[in-house]
Write a structure and sequence with these properties.
This protein is of the alpha+beta class. The protein has helices at residues 24-28, 46-60, 68-81, 124-129, 152-163, 208-219, 231-235, 267-280, 283-287; strands at 4-7, 10-13, 31-39, 42-43, 86-94, 111-118, 131-137, 168-172, 177-181, 185-189, 195-197, 224-226, 229-230, 239-244, 248-255, 258-259. The strands form 2 sheets. Strands 7, 8, 9, 10, 11, 12, 13, 14, 15 and 16 form a 10-stranded mixed beta sheet that branches. A 6-stranded antiparallel beta sheet has the order 2-1-6-5-3-4. Helix 5 links the parallel strand 7 and strand 8. The longest helix has 15 residues, at 46-60. The chain is globular, with a radius of gyration of 19 Å. 40% of the residues are buried. Bound molecules: 4'-deoxy-4'-aminopyridoxal-5'-phosphate. The site of 4'-deoxy-4'-aminopyridoxal-5'-phosphate (PMP) has 14 residues, from helix 6 and strand 14.
């Protein structure tokens, strides 16, 4: 199967897909993106992803390349042309192509690219046994709520975590509090069985998985507290986990050198992982837990 990418109005084989060198995404990272999971051709939580995209665009004053309704049709067409059972849709909008100048161009058309690939979901083993995270200072900018394609600090952190043998970096602010991961949201379960995660605001990305998992937790009668927690608190927590569209819900069983609790995924984590897997229709994810 030849993968096809949607690039500015048409589908082309991915090997022939091109963007202009003066695209502001290429020169300034002046753009935003979304990553959407699809199972059996059906995008999951598409409305939430499109609402976040609209918000990110608005915050950067980039006009939408088309209506969200039309965009959802492009996404469905991209999925139809790239049939895989478990897919990740990557969607990127940049401010467009213009001679390089920091100022916004006065006349410009936003660029839109949509690609689909097989979802790199975590292994059964990672889901069943949990993963390690590595703490690092949060060196990102002050608007982490915008899903910007400018991800250098995230890349550096994730790379450093991987070189330390860890799956993810947990980013720590100047007060010693965990904001989120380099590409995921971060949670602990405290001694009273409450689910604790950083509140929404400019220091974190409002994850779509986060919004779904918090809803599922509340429905299941688990108390949710949206407040920052410190790295030290996390190391002493009863349970810890992370979420993202691609990582799903992954237990965190080690933070730096510290094993979390007894080193196996806790009951709240397992329960939420199962509920989330059921909700998004990834049966295998539920089976392993
Ligand atoms: N935080 C950051 C910094 C991320 O990059 C991501 C994934 N894009 C998330 C959180 C999780 O967001 P979502 O659940 O929407 O994938």
């Amino acid at each position: 199967m030849t993968r096809q990418a949607y690039v500015d109005g048409r589908f082309v084989p991915i090997a022939r897909a091109r963007v202009a060198i003066e695209d502001r995404g290429y020169q300034f990272a002046d753009g935003v993106y979304e990553v959407i999971k699809a199972v059996a051709g059906e995008p999951r939580d598409l409305d939430r992803h499109l609402a976040r995209l609209e918000r990110s665009l608005g915050e950067l004053r980039i006009p939408a390349p088309m209506s969200m309704r039309a965009l959802s049709l492009v996404i469905r067409e991209a999925l139809a042309r790239n049939p895989v059972t478990k897919a990740i849709v990557y969607l990127q909008v940049t401010r467009g192509v213009a001679p390089r100048n920091h100022l916004f161009p006065s006349v410009v058309r936003p660029s839109l690219v949509v690609t689909v690939r097989r979802a790199p979901f975590p292994s059964d083993r990672e889901r069943a046994e949990g993963v390690a995270v590595f703490s690092l200072p949060d060196q990102r900018w002050g608007r982490c709520d915008i899903k910007s394609i400018s991800l250098l600090a995230n890349l550096l952190a994730k790379q450093q975590a991987a070189e330390a043998g860890c799956r993810e970096a947990w980013l720590v602010d100047e007060a010693g509090r965990v904001t989120e991961g380099s590409a995921s949201n971060a949670y602990i379960v405290d001694g009273e069985g409450r689910l604790v995660t950083h509140p929404l605001g400019p220091r974190i990305l409002g994850g779509i998985t986060r919004s779904v998992v918090l809803e599922l937790a509340r429905e299941a009668g688990i108390e949710v507290v949206e407040r920052p927690f410190t790295l030290e608190e996390a190391k002493r927590a009863r349970e810890a986990f992370l979420t993202s569209t691609t990582s799903l819900l992954l237990p965190v069983t080690r933070i730096d050198e510290q094993v979390v609790a007894n080193g196996v995924p806790g009951s709240v984590t397992r329960r939420l992982a199962r509920l989330y897997a059921e909700r998004v229709g990834i049966e295998e994810a539920a089976a392993g837990l």
